[in-house]
Amino acid sequence: MVYSYRLLSLGAAAGLFLAASSAAVLADGMEYDAKAMEAPKPAREFTYSFNIAGTSDYIFRGFSQTDRDPTLQGGMDLAYGSFYFGVWGSGLDFGDTGAPNFQEIAWGEIDIYGGLTRSWDTGHHLIGTIDFDFGVIYYAYPNARDAGAELDYVEFKAGYSWPLWSFLIPNMTSGTTVFYSPDYTGETGSVWTVESTYSWKGHEIRGITPTISGLLGWQTGDSAAYSAIVNGDDNYYYWNAGLELAVEKITFDFRYWDTNVSNAGGFCNGPLFQCDETFVFTVKVEVP
Hints:
By secondary structure, the chain is mostly beta strands. Helix content is 8%, strand content 47%. The chain has a single domain, classed as Nucleoside-specific channel-forming protein, Tsx-like (Outer membrane phospholipase (ompla), Chain C).
C-alpha cells in the first residue's frame, strides 16, 4: 500500500523554544503596560482571495507528491476579522494499485482549513508585534483507493511570527508552527511536526519585489507504519531555500528542497518515494 508522503514535526521542542524566548525577553528588564498585552480588537472586515498555480513538482515536507512531475494547484481564502477559512487543492501521483487493475491510488488532494489569528503589541520597538495563528487542517483525498489504510487525516496547528531583528534587518520575519495529528495519513498513528521559517522582503526594483525565504522542518512518529515511510527511522528533517519574484499579481518561485531521510536501498529516489534533493519552479497568480 502506498502511503501519502506527508511527514511532519515535534511540539514539545517548539513549546520549550517559545517559553525560553519569552523568559529571555522578560529577563531583559523590559516593562510592559498591561494594556499592551491585550490583543487589539480586529476590524470586522470581510476579505477574500483566489489563487492558481503551476509547479514543476509538488513537494510536501520534503517528499514529492507527484512522482517528480508538474501539476496544477489552486485555492480560495476567506477572512472576517481574526477568523479565516480556506480551501486548497492540488493534483497528485501516488502510483497505482498494481496488478490486475493498475488503478490510480489518488488523483488529487483537497485541504480544508480554518482558524484564528491574533496580534500582540509588545510595546517595545526592538521586538515589535508578534502574530499568533491557531487552526485546524483537514487533508482529503477524494475517491482514493485506500481501503487498506485511510489517507485522509486531520492536523491541529499553533504558531507565531514576528519581525526578527527588524531593528538591524528591516523586513526580516521569522516564525515557528507546531502541527499535531492524532492519526496521521495512512493510519500511521500520532505525529508531531515543527516548522520554522525565515523570510526577507526586498525593495521593489522596476516593478519586481524580491523575497528570500527558507524553512526548516522536523517530524516524528512512534509507530511501525510511520517508520516504514521514513525508511526505518522515527523522525526526519527537511528544509528548503528559495527566491520569490513578485510582479503585481504574479509570483515566480525558485526553490531548493532536501531531507535527511536515509537513501539506503535507493529509498529516496525509488518508485514509491522521492525525498532526495531537488529544485522546484512555481508560478502563482493571486487575485484580487
